[in-house]
Task: structure prediction
Amino acid sequence: MTTVICTLQRRASLLLGLAGGLGCAAFAGWSMAGLAAGAALIAAGAALAARRADDGDADSVSRHVDELQAFGNDLAPVWAGQIESSRHQMEEAVTSLTVRFAEIAARLDHALGLSTGGAGGESAADVSARSQQQLDSVLQLLRTSMRTKAEMMAKVQGLQGFVNELHGMVEAIAQVTQQTNLLAINATIEAAHAGSLGRGFATVAQEVRALSKQSGETGVRIAEKIDSIGAAIVATCSAAEESTRREQEAVAASEATIHDVLSDFRSLAESLAGAAELLRQESQGIKGDVDQALVQLQFQDRISQVMSHVSANIERMPEVIRDYGEQCRGSGTLEPLSAAVLLAELEKTYAMADERAVHRGAKAAPARADAGGDITFF
Amino acid sequence: MAKTILIVDDSASVRQVVGIALRGAGYDVMEGRDGQDALNQLTGRKVHLIISDVNMPNMDGITFLKAVKQLPAYRFTPVIMLTTESQEEKKREGQLAGAKAWMVKPFQPAQLLGAVEKLVLP
Result:
């Protein structure tokens, strides 16, 4: 009866340790602290069982050792398997995240290149300045054309002076004609006074009068033509002046329109440039964050290593329990189960200062994006 | 022609991050999952620099480094050890094996590129 009670007490102690260990590990999400607390509770359960077995015989020692080995054999692979599975899942997820972040960073780089005209494109401000330059050239051409036209008109107006001179010449001819006619009349009178001797002279005087009349008529026609030319010059000048006035108005209107359009375009360009600059700054900020996220994701490598070390240590647990069992069977008593062997082995696998610090009981340092990166050149 | 850099790390995400930084700076990148895998890739192609982790399965970084130094075609190829390991004795081990630099993870891409530019073969 006593043996049965002792066995039940030992099993209860072991189960207490097992439940406590699993509870701690599960509660802490398979963290190092949880596993450590779990291991401590398992060791406490085993120690309690050992004390209870002090009164037992060799059979009970053997049974206890067998149960403990079965416990280790059953539990360690499951723990190690879960840790390895989590490690693989985390690695796959982080690798996938890294690829995504890298794509985001590359697209932001591309967008930044485009917004700063790095891909050979012109900024809106450049296009605005170039457009203004080209339109100014067009206006300059128009102004030059108008100046040339004004010069030509001045020359045409200069012809009016020649017309006036021609008028003077026609008047002089008319006067000469009139005087010639008077002279011919006087000659005719004088020829009549000379009687038959003046007959020939009278004929000449009549011819002179006829020529004088013809000259007068030609002078009138010339005057009429000069008047027509003068009127044509005046009309041309008037039409040209009207045309110049309209062209000046058109150029002024074009200039005002171009100025307005360019002003609107400049405002738009400035607004676009402001938006592009804001976008560029935001993109740069996001890219910086993404770059930092890529640095942060490297902590997965550190966590993965810690999990590997713990997993390998857990896998070693059944072997350590077996050695412990051999020791108990050899001595015929239940010795205290020490974690020192496993802890020493675990410590040897550490690669990082964090692991060593946590092993010594320090709190885990929070992951920092600016951590690491220390470089030593040899 | 772009220079070639061999990255050796058992962590795919670290290979990704290092690869992104190097490709962004115009380098060609080769990848090895561990020392043995990387060693199998050193078959005559010109490699201007090697960046290797230390703690890896199959073949660790120090053993890989020693093996590289035995290959006539690669004995002068500079090697940067990029690792979480920060112990001085490990660093000395790396130095004795022929490493040119020892960088502790996590790294800032700009720092890594600075070291690469300093050491990469012409």
Summary: The helical segments of chain A are 2-27, 32-52, 58-115, 124-193, 199-296, 299-331, 340-349, 353-359. Confidence is low (pLDDT under 50) at residues 1-30 of chain A. The two ends of chain A are 73 Å apart (CA to CA).
